[in-house]
Design brief:
With 794 residues, the chain is mainly β. It contains eight helices and 46 strands.
């Protein structure tokens, strides 16, 4: 780390770019990037038109600015775009943002987000690495491992996707990008209200409905309250079909006392169900805005949401058929959270002072079938009889010492997070402007992971809990303190430079137990109560040239990071030399542009980039290093070459065309060799979970039907295939897919009707192929679906 800091403190190291252009892989990247840019620019040949594209106002730099004036690669969906696209969930907006990809673990809110191809494929274990993309709800970071906060998208001001490292302003986990969900705030200028009701169906599945509403009530001239509520139910389409599990060397205790030394079978008859993946979501948001004086304002908010789901959003086409799966236990989850927030903003002279504080309390619980693991995967030595027995010795043990291999898995997660930021922004007209601030956050994740064998002998129970066979019962706490700032100097009226830095100090604590308890030949637990601190400084340098009032180009060198942490096994100090893993750093070299052409009717933005990833945090299960746990190690390096672009063209008063695409070519640049000497991942391995190409196109035509305004719209998304994992021995190729959505409707200004057909081609998307050789099920999307929405505004 000290060598890297020394480089940062001297000069911006641009030489890797020059070296990279000698590489054949770079030349392929440039060709693909040129094709993306030229193809996307084609709409400018369409008919000329009057009118201009509306500005999108963003707060990406923690200032309120026109998106076209910000030298950052941003894709923003404002309130209008969110409504026109029918976006209501994470999956919806992820589909139309090409620089964002994800993998989902099979239930709502269980996704891990990636940007610009920076993915090592983390396994989602709560003891592992945090994601490399920061997720924000208003001013609060809500990033969590394999459990993104899937906020219902209604009455939302905008969603901003900031591509590339955002480490100086957004800190931990904004390593390759940041996604920000910004809610609508109370407005004292006038009363406003509305509601939306919708219903629809799914090919081969059940119906869905939703009801949403909001009201903005002025409280005099200086205050207002905004209330929002929603409830929805999404019908399932995946069937849990009949199946049989056959367990070798089944123990004598439990449901089959005559099976000792032979086999036992179990059916899933009691769990067979059509369309068993259903979700119910309800929530509310309340915010109070007060003008404390002519210069000071305060906003107080509370947001509550509860999501309950049954079944899984994955299927097993190879063994059970498309949109079918065989599960032998209950499958359900619940995600409930409450966020409290306070923002105070005021003007002091020619400065703005902002305090933003938030508290998040969240509980995520789920239960899932684990029986396939015991049937034909790892029944020796993990899940059969005495752990000291192998091979034929198992069959000679007494029945009371053997257990059933049938198993299910549960998780109880309790998250608490409070964050506070105080920042000062200059408001002057001089050549120097700056943003400086301090950030503090404390987050706690208390998790109880339970592997249950309901038919095991009572003398196998762990911690006195009936049927509990193995558990992880731990608490993970992270505390962050950071000082950050960015200073922009205008060299001329058209040329400026920005320097940014963030110093962070973090402490990570892990305490608790992993293991089988005392049931197996004495206490067989791994206990830890450890802490570790990390501190470092990351930097950013940007040069921007405003070529004209309507266009700019920029060059950026920036860094982002994921925080370090502690492994569950303190024995790694002996076997691996350390129990902790260090922050990993992503360095970005970027050239971008933003242009508004044809008298404001054409907007064309894009960027080329090269990113170098050091000390990659990588999770591995290796028993020569740790008998109890999967652990995280800093291993080797990778690089990503990429390009992204987006264009919007107002072809006429009636027709709007837009397109966006992202290309990423990422691979390891060194062997991932574990402390044991085992080669985990060879040099040149393609990074997983991120398509090399993702593109989206949209056409919207507005017209009149009598006295009504009407529209027809089509969107198309293409996602190229990717690998499910980074390890060559366990990964699967995920197929490419394309999604076409159609929408149409009319309105009479205060009310209207929208109709839609989603997934017109009935495409089955590989969101994520689970890297389990014994059960490679696939998380997938909703088939062809349709519906209608009626809305009113007051």
């Amino acid at each position: 780390m000290s060598d890297r800091k020394a480089v940062c403190e001297t000069a911006v190291p641009l030489t890797p770019i020059a070296q990279a252009f000698k590489n054949e892989r770079v030349r392929r990247h440039l060709l693909a990037s040129a094709l993306i840019s030229s193809a996307m620019f084609a709409p400018q040949a369409a008919l000329s038109a009057e009118g201009v594209i509306e500005e999108i106002i963003v707060t990406a730099t923690k200032r309120t600015e026109n998106m076209q004036d910000v030298p950052i690669a941003i894709q923003a969906l404002d309130n209008t775009a969110l409504r026109e696209l029918g976006i209501s969930s994470f999956e919806d907006y992820a589909l139309v943002l090409p620089n964002l990809s994800f993998k989902s673990f099979g239930t709502p809110g269980s996704a891990t987000i990636y940007m610009r191809g920076a993915s090592e494929g983390g396994d989602g274990n709560p003891s592992g690495s945090t994601p490399g993309v920061g997720l924000y709800l208003d001013e609060q970071p809500v990033t969590s491992i394999a459990s993104n906060l899937d906020v219902h998208i209604y009455d939302i001001a905008r969603i901003e996707a900031l591509a590339g490292p955002q480490g100086t302003l957004y800190g931990a986990s904004s390593q390759s990008g940041t996604v920000r969900i910004i809610t609508n705030k109370p407005d004292p200028s006038g009363f406003e209200a509305g509601f939306d009701v919708s219903g629809g169906g799914t090919d081969g599945g059940e119906g869905s409905y939703s009801a949403e509403g909001f009201v903005n009530i002025p409280l005099g001239e200086r205050a207002a309250i905004r209330l929002v509520g929603w409830t929805l139910e999404e019908g399932g389409w995946i069937d849990n079909v009949p199946g049989v599990r056959t367990y070798a060397l089944e123990g004598g205790y439990g449901y089959n006392p005559n099976s000792f030394g032979r086999t036992a079978t179990r059916t899933n008859a009691q769990f067979v169900e059509d369309d068993f993946n259903e979700v119910q979501k309800k929530g509310m948001r309340a915010a109070l805005g007060i003008d404390l004086s002519d210069n000071w304002t305060a906003n107080i908010g509370v947001l509550y949401q509860n999501t309950e789901s049954d079944g899984l959003w994955e299927h097993d086409p190879a063994n059970a058929g498309e949109n079918n799966i065989q599960r032998f236990d209950e499958e359900s989850s619940e995600d409930e959270f409450t966020q409290l927030s306070l923002t105070i903003e005021g003007q002091i002279g020619n400065h703005s002072l902002v305090y933003a504080g938030s508290f998040l309390d969240r509980q995520v619980d789920y239960i899932t079938d684990y029986s396939k693991y015991g049937e034909d995967a790892y029944w020796v030595p993990y899940y059969a009889c005495d752990y000291s027995a192998t091979g034929p010795n198992i069959a000679t043990q007494s029945a009371s010492d053997c257990t059933s291999l049938h198993e299910f898995y549960t998780e109880d997660n309790d998250y608490e997070r409070n964050s506070h930021e105080l920042r000062l922004l200059s408001l002057g007209d001089g050549p120097v402007n700056y943003t400086v601030g301090v950030f503090y956050q404390q987050s706690t994740h208390d998790y109880f992971l339970k592997w249950n064998q309901p038919f095991q002998s009572p003398n196998r129970d762990v911690d006195g809990i009936r049927g509990l066979f193995f558990r992880t019962d731990q608490e993970r706490e992270e505390t962050q303190l950071a000082f950050f700032g960015e200073v922009t100097f205008d060299f001329t009226d058209s040329f400026s430079g920005t320097v940014g830095a963030r110093w962070f100090d973090e402490e990570s604590k892990v305490k608790g137990v992993v293991g089988w308890g005392a049931a197996l030949f004495g206490v067989n637990d791994t206990r830890t109560n450890s802490s570790e601190s990390f501190d470092d400084t990351i930097f950013k340098v940007n040069l921007t040239w405003n070529v004209s009032d309507q266009s700019l180009v920029y060059a950026t060198w920036s860094e982002g990071y994921r925080p370090g942490g502690l492994n569950r096994d303190p024995g790694l100090v002996t076997t691996a030399g350390t129990q902790s893993w260090q922050p990993d750093i992503l360095t970005n070299y970027e050239f971008g542009w933003k242009t508004t052409l044809k008298d404001g009717r054409l907007r064309f933005n894009g960027a080329f980039y090269f990113m170098d990833w050091e000390d990659i945090q990588y999770t591995i299960y290796q028993f020569s290093l740790s008998a109890c746990c999967g652990n995280v190690y800093n291993l080797s390096t990778a690089e990503i070459l990429g390009a992204e672009a987006n264009v919007t063209y107002l072809a006429s008063d009636s027709l709007t065309l837009s397109a966006s695409a992202a290309y990423n070519d990422g691979e390891t640049t060194g062997n991932f060799i574990l402390p044991s000497g085992l080669l985990a991942v060879p040099d040149g391995t393609e990074l997983p979970n991120v398509p090399e190409l993702k593109a989206n196109m949209l056409a919207r035509y507005n017209f009149a039907i009598g006295d009504s305004n009407a529209y027809a719209q089509m969107s198309y998304t293409y996602v190229e295939g990717s690998w499910s994992e980074i390890r060559l021995t366990t990964r699967f190729k995920q197929d490419s897919y394309k999604i076409i959505n159609l929408r149409a409707g009319f309105d009479r200004e205060t009310w209207g009707v929208d109709v839609y057909i989603n997934n017109l081609l009935d495409e089955t998307a590989d969101y994520y192929v689970q890297p389990r050789n014994y059960e490679p099920t696939t998380v997938t999307n909703r088939p062809l679906s349709w519906g209608a929405k009626y809305w009113m505004r007051f």
